[in-house]
Design goal:
475 residues; alpha+beta; FAD/NAD(P)-binding domain; D-Amino Acid Oxidase, Chain A, domain 2; 23% strand; binds flavin-adenine dinucleotide
Length: 475
């Protein structure tokens, strides 16, 4: 029997697993997809928010401010791409100015450091591509950008090294509690534990109702994006927001840690599984974004994508022990959930410490070093290739990713099982051609390394096979 079962391997479930596995606890993570970070965690704005936006006294405010500090530390320890680039919230008129003053005060009350209100001149000096219409801005110096899926993977891999048991392709179907023991049933197995932590994202309401009466509903609110080529990556050097409204933080323009420019999102209620982008949604995003930064060259767009926010009736995270003792809900984790995830991990550990005495493990793994070939010096590259010739074969030409890095992704402690799984681990297909050139080569490498037919190679989730049939050689 396990001590803790965590349901859902997004950034929240993996953050909790990261903290709990530092202690003498048997932890199992059940995830319905074939990889971690396949839900909302892989499709968002990738901002580690400073914490001026959530209302004082909410879980969001507390966990955002704590999470943002912890994310900075953890990204350094686990070698996750992270840049503290800062953010502006732009004002265009007197009403916006009042809102910016409110956000400033809220930030101070929430304990956010490094906030300043600046005028038109200073805003344009720091960000010359902003609209001339900008009258003032809130400058949040602690705001940062991160690679969300690499953060999630780093937390998951570190947990595995510390003993976590990640069970992928396990969809939780039922939960029952008898004599203090939870039995969690998936499509093909039963798992038992003393505690259950519900981190099932858009489906946290369904999981909650497996043991509790209905107490909240999760609705999906879609956000659509442009991801623009690196040629536009320096259009702004900070994350540029407009004043938030009732639907969220509005449309942002931001550099990404991979050197691109991200523009979005809108906010449209939708079905949980709908990740389509629409011409109307993207037109809305474009119109809103050029109000902040008129010169964005949308012709350099390389990809559109969408992510779904998990929203409940309440304007806060649902972060509490449920009516069923020892069953904890991390639900309605909409934005700033990415920024708050490590705060949740930290506090779930504190919650467990309040339940029983926990023993810290000795020899905990809490560091990680990734080989990113293109970031090495010439001497380091030569040295690496001399020892491991597979690092001398560049497979993804846009991002200069080598076969060595792909092999590391396919044989890691949480190995990639698809083309997108490789992409999330080492950035293949992230460049201008979006995998057009390297896709076939990566398919061959996956088939060879996983000892499967190329016909079985997946783009991403189960059923996303990319090749249909082998054409007979004599045809
Ligand atoms: C458009 C958009 C923009 C955003 N921008 C930001 C931002 O800039 N900064 C920020 O801080 N936050 C942002 N967020 C919010 C952030 O992305 C989320 O809060 C965060 O990713 C939620 O993580 P999670 O682990 O709760 O959910 P998920 O990543 O969705 O993980 C839940 C997991 O549970 C699994 N699961 C579901 N049902 C079952 C089941 N029955 N059995 C087993 N597994 C199951 C799913 O497959 C999934 O992997 C944004 C969100 C969106 C949509």
């Amino acid at each position: 029997m396990q001590d803790v079962i965590i349901i859902g391997a997004g950034v929240v479930g993996c953050s909790i697993s990261y903290y709990l596995t530092k202690y003498d606890l048997k932890v199992t993570v059940l995830e319905k997809c074939n990889d971690v970070s396949c839900g909302t965690t892989k499709a968002n704005s990738a901002i580690i928010h400073a914490g001026y936006d959530p209302k004082e006294g909410t879980h969001m405010a507390r966990l955002n401010v704590l999470g943002s500090k912890l994310t900075k530390e953890v990204c350094q320890k686990l070698d996750v791409p992270y840049q503290q680039c800062g953010a502006f919230v732009l004002g265009f008129n007197e009403e916006d100015r009042k809102h910016i003053e409110l956000l400033y005060q809220r930030g101070v009350n929430n304990g956010v450091e490094g906030l300043e209100i600046i005028d038109h001149k200073k805003a344009l000096e720091l960000e010359p591509n902003l609209s001339e219409e900008v009258t003032c801005a809130l400058w949040a110096k602690s705001s940062a950008i991160v690679s969300p899926w690499e953060l999630c993977l780093a937390l998951a891999e570190t947990s595995v090294k510390n003993g976590a048991d990640f069970r992928l392709n396990q969809e939780v179907k039922a939960i029952r509690k008898e004599n203090g023991v939870f039995t969690v049933t998936t499509q093909d197995a039963e798992y038992q534990s003393r505690y259950v932590i519900n981190c099932a994202g858009l489906y946290a309401d369904v999981i909650n109702e497996m043991v509790n009466p209905k107490s909240f509903t999760i609705n999906s609110v879609k956000g659509e994006y442009y991801l623009i080529d690196k040629s536009e990556g320096k259009r702004v050097s900070r994350t540029i927001f407009q004043c938030p409204n009732k639907d969220g933080k509005g449309v942002l323009v931001s550099p990404t840690v991979h050197g691109n420019l991200i523009v979005g999102p809108n906010a449209e209620k939708n079905e949980k599984e709908d990740l389509s982008t629409t011409s109307a949604g993207l037109a809305f995003v474009k119109k809103a974004a050029v109000r902040s930064v008129p010169s964005i060259n949308f012709r350099e767009n390389i990809r559109n994508f969408a992510g779904n926010r998990a929203k409940s009736e309440v304007d806060d995270f649902i972060f509490e022990e449920s009516a069923t003792e020892n069953f904890f809900n991390c639900a309605a984790i909409c934005s700033p959930g990415l920024s708050s995830a490590l705060g949740m991990g930290y506090e779930v550990l504190e919650w467990l410490k309040g339940k029983e005495e926990l023993k810290e493990k000795t020899n905990v793994v809490d560091s990680r070093k990734q080989i990113r070939f293109k970031q090495l010096s010439m001497e380091e590259k030569n040295e690496l290739i001399a020892k491991h010739p597979e690092y001398g074969r560049v497979i993804c030409r846009c991002e200069t990713v080598t076969e060595g890095e792909i092999l590391a992704a396919l044989h890691s402690v949480l190995p990639a099982v698809s083309i997108d799984g490789v992409k999330r681990r080492c950035n293949t297909g992230m460049g201008r051609c979006q995998g057009g050139f390297c896709g076939p080569k990566i398919t061959e490498i996956i088939a060879r390394e996983l000892h499967i037919s190329p016909l079985e190679v997946l783009q991403d989730l189960d059923g996303s096979n990319i090749l249909k049939e082998q054409i007979k050689e004599d045809c």
